[in-house]
Amino acid sequence: MNIEIVEKILEKHRKQGDGLISILEEIQSRFTYLPEEALRMVASERNIPLVNVYGVATFYRAFSLKPRGKHLICGCLGTACHVRGGPVIVEELEKNLGVKRGETTPDKEFTLETVACLGACALGPVVVADGKYFPKVRKTKVKNILEQVRKGFEDSSVEQDYHIFPVEVSCPNCNHSLMNPNHIIDHYPSIRFIASFDQKHGWIELSSMYGSYKVFTEHEIPSDTIVHFFCTHCHAELTGSSPCPACNAPMASMIVRGGGIIQICSRQGCRSHMLDLG
Amino acid sequence: MINLIINGLDVHVPEGSTVLEAARFLGFPIPTLCYLESLSPYGACRLCVVEIGEGARAKLVSSCTYPATEGLKVRTSSERVVKARRMVIELLLATCPQSKTIQDLASAHNVRRQRFRQEHEDCILCGLCTRMCEEQMMAKAIGFRGRGESRSIGTPFDIESEVCRRCGGCMYVCPACQLRCTFTNPEKAICGGCANLAPPCVEKDQFKDLMCYMDPCVACEIKKD
């Protein structure tokens, strides 16, 4: 364990005034687990008794005190997934990885876990690998999933998730649709705004696929720049209700057809977004 | 003063009392296990259940955590309460049959058998020791870990805690490990039994703010000689 990394994380959260769980989450994402030394550092830095930090760390399933593999495979065994064959899928995963549930492969590549419900019952049985949801998994698909995980998801395309629907959005000010059927991204009409930054104005087009981060712009936007989004019809700025939870930049909001609001962070490179289906 | 009715009797208790305090003050017996006057109420053991309200809206609440409110109607030993209490005792017996405290409770409430799968745990998770450690000893050396089935009490990482002064307060209040000797097994985090006592108390000087609940303390008696 690298003490400096933990110190850096603590320093960052001290500024933001965050609570214990977000600190532990970040430590876990850096080390794949919570090292004992890190928990002691958190306790003394935050002035929380170690026993409370330990209690929180052992309470939540998301935290692990043992080192975990590079890839986290999680099979859902909730009621809906169970009746749709979840246990068979988990057994198949166990067979393919050669470890029981809750264990890590000796080469530290995979950790297999089960979860009681992911809230995606319509897609059951669900397997989540490194944060990616695989819906309606069959026994025969398990090998394929593991291969994909081993390769990494960087080049796998969004279209595979045919259960994830594109969103149609409109301007919260004039209610005109922001969809642009002339430019297709991810097989669906893109979302078009006017973007303004550093005295430059130009169009920006985003994928309407929820979960895809494809963006096309007229001018190259440098990373970390805060962009102002304007409606292409009424030219009103799309301002959100609250700052970005990840980077504190302003959010841009749009109305989702069918009811609800989606907010995206206006900072180039920040992928934070909030979907609130009313 | 708050006016409430306990077992059909109009009574007045000071503001801020709990139902349990009110009932005990007035002499209505309510058995408890996880309640200790000097510690914050926790409501874990459910032995102190009483029935409040009337008719269809009557419900069982834990009296140690329920505040006495104006006009509250409390029954401390209705049929429903007694039934619930006996059930709680049966469940406690199923978890921890070797505890003298629980055996005494069962005997006092005429519980002669329990109908559940017999286990032999050494902890009923009443939280008395953690509260004692935190509130009276100002240590926070032990606490709850995990959840659900695997919930347990102990020190972080199951190693000796730096903040533990081995005062023995946790053992003193424990209803499960009380009067149970673990002989020469000092490694155990909570109840080190008598083996834990002698060395730390004899080397008392290193803990300037040492508070001891073991009275009379075996180790101190040894030291006197």
Could you walk me through the main structural features you see in this protein, from its secondary elements to its overall organization?
The complex is a heterodimer of chains A (278) and B (225). Chain A folds into 3 domains: 3-59, no CATH class; 71-155, Glutaredoxin; 169-276, no CATH class. Chain A has 278 residues and is of the alpha+beta class. In chain A, a hairpin with a 2-residue loop joins β6 (179-185) and β7. Helices cover 27% and strands 23% of the residues of chain A. In chain A, α1 (3-16) runs parallel beside α3 and α3 packs across α4. Chain A has helices at 3-16, 20-31, 36-46, 50-59, 79-83, 86-97, 142-151; strands at 71-76, 110-115, 127-129, 132-134, 169-170, 179-185, 188-197, 200-206, 215-217, 228-230, 251-256, 261-265, 273-276. Chain B is of the alpha+beta class and 225 residues long. Chain B has 2 domains: 2-108, Ubiquitin-like (UB roll), CATH 3.10.20.740; 128-224, no CATH class. Helix content of chain B is 26%, strand content 12%. Chain B has helices spanning 19-25, 79-95, 100-108, 128-136, 169-173, 198-202, 218-224; strands at residues 2-6, 9-13, 49-52, 59-62, 73-75, 143-145, 152-154. Chain B has a 5-stranded mixed β-sheet with strand order 2-1-5-3-4, with helices on both faces. In chain B, α2 (79-95) packs antiparallel against α3 (100-108). Mean pLDDT of chain B is 81; it is low at 179-183 and 187-202. At the A-B interface, α4 of A face β6 of B.
CATH topology of the largest domain in chain B: Ubiquitin-like (UB roll)
Strand order of the largest sheet of chain B: 2-1-5-3-4
Uncertain segments of chain B are 179-183, 187-202
Number of domains of chain A: 3
Number of helices of chain B: 7
How much of the sequence of chain B is in beta strands?
A: 5-15%
What level of helicity do the residues of chain A show?
25-40%
Proportion of helical residues of chain B: 25-40%
User: What gap, in angstroms, lies between the N and C termini of chain B?
Assistant: 53 Å
Contiguous low-pLDDT stretches of chain A (5 residues minimum) are none
Structural class of chain B: alpha+beta
**Cα separation of the termini of chain A:** 44 Å
The number of E-state strands of chain A comes to 13
